[in-house]
Amino acid sequence: MASGWGITGNKGRCYDFWMDFSECMSRCREPKDCSLLREDYFECLHHSKEYQRRNRIYKEEQRQLRAASQKKKEGGDGGGGHH
């Protein structure tokens, strides 16, 4: 993946992230100085943060649907005289 060649023969999608990270590692004193660039590179490769966010959004949508469904059930059980 770090070779720069993607699956179609063009530059790989994460190559620029790799080059930034690699350049940082070659000139830094502490590897932790490049932790944000490393994080960006791994996110490009694996999309783990994106998947976590999508999962949280999906779970919240499901929670809201369940709450609305529960509210509808409670409201439709003959308690109609409340104002």
TrEMBL record:
A single GO cellular-component term on record: mitochondrial intermembrane space
Superkingdom of this protein's organism: Eukaryota
Listed InterPro entries: NADH_UbQ_OxRdtase_FeS-su5
Presence of keyword Transport: yes
Methyltransferase recorded as keyword: no
UniProtKB keywords: Disulfide bond, Electron transport, Membrane, Mitochondrion, Mitochondrion inner membrane, Respiratory chain, Transport
Subcellular location(s) of the protein: Mitochondrion inner membrane; Mitochondrion intermembrane space
GO BP of this protein: mitochondrial respiratory chain complex I assembly
Region ranges (Disordered): 56-83
Protein topology in the membrane: Peripheral membrane protein
Any Pfam family hit: Ndufs5
Disulphide bridges: C14-C44, C24-C34
Family, per entry: Belongs to the complex I NDUFS5 subunit family.
Function: Accessory subunit of the mitochondrial membrane respiratory chain NADH dehydrogenase (Complex I), that is believed not to be involved in catalysis. Complex I functions in the transfer of electrons from NADH to the respiratory chain. The immediate electron acceptor for the enzyme is believed to be ubiquinone.
Protein name as it appears in the record: NADH dehydrogenase [ubiquinone] iron-sulfur protein 5-B
